[in-house]
Write a sequence for this structure.
């Protein structure tokens, strides 16, 4: 037996350790006549934690739809897998449409992966419900007529928090430092934030791009302190948010924290007493309306913990997709597009109904700013957020907080 | 002004070096003695963090930080006896593969036991906050961490250099056949070394849990950096690993000061340069059995 040189093996080991990125597919299949829906979301990597919630949400919706007789009498067969990264996401999406004969695609949180899937959807002329990606660019520069965007875009998150900040006189003449996730989503969010600061005389004095796999933020925190800001502004994503929040509390920084992106899963992971500041969200399990309460109760009964905002968005996305299929009695992509483009209204478990805007396929809905509940007022470990009033106010048109045609133009090829 | 800021990053980088050291030292130790690159090392770090977080609520912070590494060290006995032992003399690629597989199994097991969502953790209120010395800002918690790492380092050095146990281990690294010829069985020593190594990794996990995200993939994240540190320092060299950990921390901090986006890449560039100039690593010794 020949023994390879240990030093060579060591180098091989370095390469091997670098490719730990393979996901485990969680494949769910059912009967033959079922309507197949290809679902992709990151289950590993820096967005894996919230992706796991997304998967629980979409599976619950599929179970409920099937339990109540399916769609047009046919059950839904959800093929759900880890999207891993943009390249893998595109390959898997193509395979789901081509080999698995999926009627349409749904999912994603990572904006870069969503962009890759959007292109697959357009090539195959199949609808893609992009549930969790937030980059404005996906709705603007990169838009296409097969893709529908369910989550709120970056500009809305900036506006939701910005409106609250303006009311507290926290923008004009204040010095801001931003910490930004170094990929398409972060760049996009920074652009929206810069536009907001420029429009309201905020003074951006520092801007750090941070790789998505960073776990230690101490060098960045030192730089923040060195630039002596009035407000620290967070444009990070996934695990980055959790790590930053923990280490911000660790260093005991007192600069007010403002975030333009937060998923409640990342806030829960930071632990009670660590999060502070003002943030935006698209939904929270304490929202007080009958539909929301029923969903939360079912989810808790099944999983022993409340649904995160990605669980909610995937749940309502599949539900409204099923509703549209029932209403049109069709699973054909062109028929569904026509139905959504009529700006059909859907119940989103919020005070106001939502609809997909015809010209960029954005699901127009309310958003909420929130602050953090003091630790001694929390009912349980999940009861972290103190929701502010919905944005926009009840008497203002929903679209006012969304980017307009001039700001984020979209041209769809038909 | 600028130079003070830079100095602050250098000092912070040294503290950060301690953070990498706990993981890298065990990795290096297990390789020197057993000749196996333990890719499952990160898994013990993750398990250490998870056990500690579970225990925080029941027995308090300090006892949990002590109990978790002890539990993982005991797990290390099982790991060495049942698995690692069979691969000391086998083709090294087999050891690499088996530990890589174990790392994946461990990660998935964590996902099945604790779920994919990260665990919420928090640290005692008294350890939060910063200490300001002159112009420098330190996190109180990291200073404590640094003190613990220094203590562990000193204890390990004394153990290896000043005790009969250490003499056998060091002889075993250089010439296992001679040790055997003198009538000493190396196997119990191997078990002890693996226990020490994975115990230190678990201590790292327990200590970092309050300040980083506790999630199933945390092991595969740390193993890469730890591996880079070991390669830069030179295999088998105690002080090489210490030096490399500090160097990696400082290079990362200084890079972030000038080019924030290149912070993580700087570590790999450093490894590349060191390997080009000194293929054996900074202080790597020539170990007969590995050549």
């Amino acid at each position: 037996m020949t023994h390879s040189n240990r030093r060579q093996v060591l180098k091989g080991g370095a390469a091997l350790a670098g490719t730990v990125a393979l996901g485990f597919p969680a494949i769910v299949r059912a009967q033959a006549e079922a309507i197949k829906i290809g679902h992709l979301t990151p289950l590993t990597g820096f967005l894996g934690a919230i992706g796991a919630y997304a998967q629980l949400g979409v599976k619950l919706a599929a179970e409920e739809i099937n339990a109540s007789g399916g769609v047009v009498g046919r059950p839904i067969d959800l093929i759900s897998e880890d999207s891993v990264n943009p390249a893998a996401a595109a390959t898997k999406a193509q395979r789901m449409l081509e080999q698995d004969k999926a009627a349409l695609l749904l999912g994603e949180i990572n904006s870069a992966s969503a962009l890759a899937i959007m292109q697959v959807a357009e090539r195959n002329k199949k609808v893609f419900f992009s549930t969790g990606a937030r980059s404005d660019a996906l709705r603007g520069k990169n838009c296409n007529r097969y893709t529908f965007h369910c989550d709120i875009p970056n500009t809305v998150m900036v506006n939701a928090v910005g409106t609250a900040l303006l009311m507290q006189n926290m923008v004009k003449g204040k010095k801001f430092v931003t910490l930004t996730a170094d990929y398409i989503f972060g760049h996009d969010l920074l652009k929206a934030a810069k536009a907001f600061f420029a429009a309201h005389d905020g003074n951006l004095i520092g801007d750090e791009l941070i790789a998505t796999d960073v776990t230690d933020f101490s060098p960045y925190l030192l730089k923040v302190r060195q630039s002596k800001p009035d407000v620290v502004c967070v444009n990070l994503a996934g695990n980055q948010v959790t790590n930053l929040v923990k280490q911000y509390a660790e260093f005991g920084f007192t600069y007010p924290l403002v975030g333009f992106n937060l998923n409640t899963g990342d806030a829960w992971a930071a632990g009670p007493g660590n999060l502070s500041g003002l943030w935006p969200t698209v939904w929270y399990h304490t929202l007080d309306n009958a539909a929301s309460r029923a969903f939360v109760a079912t989810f808790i009964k099944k999983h022993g913990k409340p649904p995160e905002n990605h669980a909610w968005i995937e749940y309502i996305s599949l539900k409204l997709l099923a509703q549209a299929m029932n209403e049109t009695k069709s699973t054909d992509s062109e028929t569904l597009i026509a139905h959504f483009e009529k700006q059909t209204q859907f119940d989103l478990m919020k005070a106001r109904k939502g609809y997909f805007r015809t010209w960029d396929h954005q699901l127009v809905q309310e958003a909420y700013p929130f602050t953090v509940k003091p630790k001694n007022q929390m009912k349980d470990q999940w009861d972290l957020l103190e929701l502010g009033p919905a944005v926009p106010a009840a008497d203002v048109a929903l679209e006012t907080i969304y980017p307009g045609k001039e700001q984020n133009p979209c041209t769809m090829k038909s | 002004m600028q130079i003070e800021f830079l100095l602050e990053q250098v000092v912070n980088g040294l503290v950060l070096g301690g953070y990498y050291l706990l993981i890298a030292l065990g990795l290096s130790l297990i390789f020197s003695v057993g000749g196996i690159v333990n890719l499952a090392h990160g898994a013990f770090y993750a398990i250490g963090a998870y056990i500690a977080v579970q225990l925080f609520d029941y027995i308090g912070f300090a006892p949990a930080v002590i109990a978790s590494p002890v539990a993982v060290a005991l797990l290390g006995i099982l790991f060495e006896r049942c698995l690692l032992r069979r691969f000391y003399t086998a083709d090294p690629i087999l050891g690499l593969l088996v530990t890589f597989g174990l790392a994946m199994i461990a990660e998935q097991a964590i996902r099945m036991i604790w779920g994919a969502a990260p665990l919420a953790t928090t640290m005692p209120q008294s350890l939060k906050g910063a200490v300001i010395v002159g112009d420098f800002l330190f996190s109180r918690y990291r200073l404590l961490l640094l003190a613990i790492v220094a203590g562990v380092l000193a204890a390990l050095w004394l153990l290896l250099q000043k005790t009969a146990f250490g003499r056998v281990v060091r002889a075993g690294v250089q010439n296992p056949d001679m040790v055997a010829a003198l009538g000493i069985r190396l196997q119990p020593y191997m078990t002890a070394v693996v226990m020490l190594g994975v115990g230190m990794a678990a201590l790292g996990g327990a200590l970092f849990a309050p300040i980083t995200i506790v999630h199933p993939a945390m092991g595969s994240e740390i193993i890469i950096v730890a591996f880079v540190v070991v390669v830069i320092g030179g295999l088998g060299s105690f002080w090489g690993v210490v030096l490399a950990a500090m160097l990696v921390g400082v290079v990362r901090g200084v890079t972030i000061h000038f080019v924030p986006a290149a912070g993580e890449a700087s570590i790999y560039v450093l490894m590349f340069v060191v390997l080009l100039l000194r293929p054996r690593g900074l202080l790597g010794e020539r170990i007969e059995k590995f050549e």
User: Anything to note?
Assistant: Chain B has a mean pLDDT of 91. Residues 2-290 of chain B form a domain with the ABC transporter involved in vitamin B12 uptake, BtuC fold (CATH 1.10.3470). The first strand of chain B starts at residue 130 and ends at 133.
